[in-house]
Design a protein that fits this description.
Distance between the termini of chain A: 33 Å
Number of helices of chain A: 0
Helix content of chain A: under 10%
Number of strands of chain A: 11
Largest sheet of chain A: 7 strands, mixed
Oligomer: heterodimer
Largest sheet of chain B: 6 strands, mixed
Chain lengths: 115, 111
């Protein structure tokens, strides 16, 4: 399967713990995006990478959140000192940099539950 | 910034009946509009997109959407739904590289 993959698919953690999610984009895509989807809402943009450079972070991304894409391939999203409000589906997407609009391909998501 | 509003949170429909999901956008500049579908326990999949050109766009599984500039709408329609169309549908627009989604419409198809 050459689509976007995310790991783990589900994560249950206790409040105050740190968690890290991984996203592997489609191999030839140089753009990578993180979104967060809470129950009953559409996905909201969190951050965006072009190659290894993080070009934008949403104000939703508090200082407890950090994302990296060290070699311009896979990306990690870490949440420190998790809170119950962090419970959500975290979606990763990737796209190429061709043309006016670059279709974003989404992974299956990581569902985080903070107890 | 561009945004979209989905007017229906839930749409129950019987199998083989038509369905329409409503989406309005707000923008004063050129828009890119999309419909994404999310099946249970799966990621988002692009259903169809409007970038420019013909205002009527179609997907491979029978859905179509019409870009209506005067009504600032991009409603999604299917003339006859199947059980397998049960899913959540999201209207979205693109601000530079960021997708901005509506709240979603849950379609439940009943036999």
């Amino acid at each position: 399967d050459t689509g976007v993959s995310q790991d783990p698919r589900h994560k249950i953690t206790k409040r105050g713990q740190n968690v890290t999610f991984r996203c592997d984009p489609i191999s030839e895509h140089n753009r990578l995006y993180w979104y967060r989807q809470t129950l009953g809402q559409g996905p909201e943009f969190l951050t965006y990478f072009q190659n290894e450079a993080q070009l934008e972070k949403s104000r939703l991304l508090s200082d407890r959140f950090s994302a990296e894409r060290p070699k311009g391939s896979f990306s990690t999203l870490e949440i420190q000192r998790t809170e119950q409000g962090d419970s959500a589906m975290y979606l990763c997407a990737s796209s190429s940099q061709v043309g006016v609009y670059n279709e974003q391909f989404f992974g299956p998501g990581t569902r985080l539950t903070v107890l | 910034a561009q945004s979209v509003t989905q007017l229906d949170s839930q749409v129950p429909v019987f199998e083989e009946a038509p369905v329409e999901l409503r989406c309005n956008y707000s923008s004063s500049v050129s828009v890119y509009l999309f419909w994404y579908v999310q099946y249970p326990n799966q990621g988002l999949q692009l259903l169809l997109k409007y970038l420019s050109g013909s205002t009527l766009v179609e997907s491979i599984n029978g859905f179509e959407a019409e870009f209506n500039k005067s009504q600032t709408s991009f409603h999604l329609r299917k003339p006859s739904v199947h059980i397998s169309d049960t899913a959540e549908y999201f209207c979205a627009t693109c601000n530079d590289y960021k997708l901005s989604f509506g709240a979603g419409t849950t379609v439940t198809v009943r036999a």
